[in-house]
Amino acid sequence: MMKFGPVFKQDRALLSLGKEMEVTKILIAEDNPDILTIMADRLKSEGYDVITATDGEMAWDQITRLDPDIILLDLMMPNMRF
After folding, report:
1. pLDDT single digits (tens) 19-69
2. Pairwise CA distance, residues 37 & 47, whole Å
3. Residue 79 domain-assigned?
4. How many other C-beta atoms are found inside a 10 Å radius of the C-beta of residue 4?
5. pTM of the predicted model, to two decimals?
6. Whether the Cβ atoms of residue 70 and residue 24 lie closer than 8 Å to each other
7. In terms of residue numbers, what domain contains 32?
8. 14 in a domain, yes or no?
9. What pLDDT is stored for residue 7 in this prediction?
10. Which of 43, 46, 78, 40 is CA-nearest to residue 59?
11. Residue 58 and residue 79: Cα distance in Å, rounded?
12. Residue 1 — very low, low, confident or very high, per pLDDT cuts 50/70/90?
């Protein structure tokens, strides 16, 4: 089971790459719905703007349209071509 520790203000400042006034936009690309839900709920509860994708094509579409600050990517998911 995955565990997440607390996120502190200094961590958010690092994640936002100097954009402290903006909400950090995080894309989670994960095909396992349980993992996706856990990660998204946790990050949303910490105040992050969370975008999700369940396959590679959807992830690429979200990246090109929404320009996330951070991408949490499952490399072994459907429709992922390298």
Report:
1. 555 789 999 999 999 999 999 999 999 999 999 999 999 999 999 999 999
2. 15
3. yes
4. 12
5. 0.72
6. yes
7. 23-82
8. no
9. 54
10. 78
11. 9
12. very low
What tokens appear for 15 in the block? 């994640």
Position 44 in a domain = yes
CA distance 82 to 23: 30
Both tokens assigned to 56: 């590679």
Any domain includes 54: yes
* Tokens describing residue 69: 């600050």
Residue 61's CATH number: 3.40.50.2300
Structure tokens at 43: 């990050």
The two tokens of residue 60 are 């690429």
Cβ neighbours of residue 19 under 8 Å, at least 6 residues apart? 69
